[in-house]
Amino acid sequence: MTKHGKPRTDSTWTGMVPVDDTALAVTDSGGSGIPVIYLNGQFATQGYWRRVIAELGTRWRHITYDGRARGKSKPSADYSFDTAVRDVDAVLAARGVDRALVVGWSYGAFVAAHWAGRNPGRAMGAVMVDGAFPYDWLDEAMERHIRKLFGRMGWFMPLLRPTGLVPRMNAAQMATINIELGRISRERELGPVLDDITVPVRYVVASGASFGSKGDGQERIRTSLEAVTGRNPNIRVSAKVASNHGAILRKDAPAIAKAVREVASLGREGH
Prior knowledge:
The chain has 271 residues and is of the alpha/beta class. It is built from eleven helices and eight strands.
């Protein structure tokens, strides 16, 4: 911080940002470049963005953070999706950033879509990395399956928490987050959000299955983008890459960086 209480922006800052009943672990590379805020997968941490950040380089201001109870962030009583969207504002405010480009992977892509839609004057644009597909994949049978799956995993999750591989949540909380995501993903829920976005959006889409999907199920979900791009000219697919959902940040960082540069260029033209 400077002597006037404003965040320094000329060097890397790492620390905790208090929000509601918790505190988020945040890293801000600083500098005068375009601010890019990275939104993680559901149970991922900020370290997943390492290769994308390296690919973009030092001319950008990179802001990453761990979500509530993930990584080095503190637990909370509220893990709702709406809270995840509001936490973007909290992190940006703490770092003195008003306008930023949002990049989200998986769960983070849904957060990016909602944040960009709610903040057209503050979002330079958004990059969605294999997420935010409007598709009805959740039904009652799937809800039961999710709760059963996490219930079975519950006994060994505490053993893995010291490694940082799982969040500091119980099995029921993790199941609830997944089920809420299924509801948010429904076409009648997510479709209007995407249709109303007025800033540049680019998707980087993976191939093949993701954890928990079967057969061509994930590919069917991804085809929902065709209707979205047909309705909203601000949204386009930047790349369809060969890697799967889990490997895309590691193997296709160049494609993601290219989409970020494209959105930044369009965002500058619009202002």
